[in-house]
């Protein structure tokens, strides 16, 4: 899908009625090969395909080509109980920004709605400003994901360490298996968010360097694609404002990376605790089997001895031999049970 997002107008698909020259944001959503070819023809720039955006080396993610800035990063997408990462590409030109993505992202839609509600008569935001806003909204979205993940881990923690666990072993086993599944999902999501944070931070750093180079061109040549100073030289320039916003975004990314590392540590701690409880449950099961087998040894031995029927066994002709044998078997059952109970292997003392 090829979307045109002009300022002050709702987004719509590119067609004969859309004036590309007045559109400062072109949004390609899950584009096909034909749509990429069409966009390249209309815009006169190279549009990277998905395999190009998935390259991991920095030189393939951030570069300049034909006076255009190409940036890409993996970005996490969470839906229900699954999360995945898809590459996102940004193409920054002097007139517009072009985004290439292969799934929906809330941050893009939010910035798009803000752009559609732009006041009439006000100067449209530049391509650099739109990219900075996208970076900020992506960071906000990643922060929301981490906050939700933190609340999920708090819920899991209370469930794992709850003193009033269900007494039914089947329910306990099901609860621990579900906990392991949720912890696996949480760990995978935290890892994907970390990749997104690292990727968007590299985009931010490269963009900040690009703006600094543009400011340097002002000093050297007196021209730049970015406005630099007002006529009085007193108000902050757009370039300075962008750099300031990008520095704040960098601090946000650093704090989110620390929070993500804390979440990964908590996932590992809860995973170890859950596996520990599983081991305890297994040990309790082995104790039951040990008790059951132990209390059956002595009665079986006694029954085996008096079941041999040798001629010289005095108990065979004894009047109380049968009750005596039964009493020995009962006592050999009760005494081990009492011993195991005193050791705390079952029941409560």
Measured between the Cα atoms of the first and last residue, the distance is 70 Å
Which architecture name of the largest domain does CATH use? 2-Layer Sandwich
Helix content: 55-70%
Determine the number of helices (DSSP H or I, runs of at least 4 residues). 8
Q: Which structural class matches the secondary elements?
A: alpha+beta
Task: Give structural notes.
Residues 218-240 are annotated as: Disordered. One of its GO terms (molecular function) is magnesium ion transmembrane transporter activity. It comes from Gluconobacter japonicus. Belongs to the CorA metal ion transporter (MIT) (TC 1.A.35) family. The protein has 8 helices and 7 strands; from the N terminus they run βββαααββββααααα. With 349 residues, it is of the alpha+beta class. It has 2 domains: 2-282, Beta Polymerase, domain 2, CATH 3.30.460; 284-342. The chain has a 7-stranded mixed β-sheet with strand order 2-1-3-7-6-5-4, with helices on both faces. A hairpin with a 2-residue loop joins β4 (62-65) and β5 (68-79). It is rod-shaped.
């Amino acid at each position: 899908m090829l979307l045109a997002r002009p300022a002050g107008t709702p987004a719509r698909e590119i067609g004969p009625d859309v004036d590309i020259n007045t559109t400062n944001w072109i949004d390609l959503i899950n584009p096909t090969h034909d749509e990429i070819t069409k966009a390249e023809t209309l815009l006169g720039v190279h549009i990277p395909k998905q395999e190009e955006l998935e390259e991991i080396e920095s030189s393939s993610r951030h570069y300049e080509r034909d006076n255009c800035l190409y940036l890409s990063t993996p970005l996490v997408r969470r839906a229900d109980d699954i999360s995945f990462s898809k590459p996102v590409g940004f193409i920054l030109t002097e007139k517009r920004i072009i985004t290439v993505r292969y799934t929906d992202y809330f941050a893009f839609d939010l910035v798009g709605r803000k752009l559609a509600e732009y006041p009439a008569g006000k100067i449209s935001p530049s391509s650099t400003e739109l990219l900075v806003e996208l970076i900020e909204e992506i960071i906000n979205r990643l922060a929301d994901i981490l906050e939700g993940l933190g609340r999920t881990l708090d819920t899991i923690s209370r469930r794992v360490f709850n003193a009033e666990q269900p007494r039914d072993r089947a329910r306990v086993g099901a609860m621990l298996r579900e906990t392991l599944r949720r912890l696996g999902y949480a760990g995978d999501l935290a890892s994907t968010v970390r990749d997104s944070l690292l990727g968007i931070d590299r985009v931010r750093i490269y963009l900040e360097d690009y703006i600094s180079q543009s400011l340097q061109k002002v000093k050297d040549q007196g021209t730049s694609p970015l406005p630099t100073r007002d006529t009085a030289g007193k108000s902050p320039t757009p370039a300075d404002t962008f750099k300031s916003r990008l520095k704040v975004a960098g601090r946000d990314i650093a704090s989110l990376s620390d929070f993500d590392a804390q979440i990964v540590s908590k996932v590992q701690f809860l995973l170890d605790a859950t596996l520990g409880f599983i081991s305890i449950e297994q040990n309790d099961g082995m104790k039951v089997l040990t008790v059951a087998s132990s209390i059956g040894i002595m009665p079986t031995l006694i029954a085996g001895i008096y079941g041999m029927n040798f001629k010289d066994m005095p108990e065979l002709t004894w009047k109380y031999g049968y009750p005596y044998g039964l009493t020995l078997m009962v006592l050999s059952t009760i005494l081990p049970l009492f011993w195991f109970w005193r050791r705390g292997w079952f029941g409560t003392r």
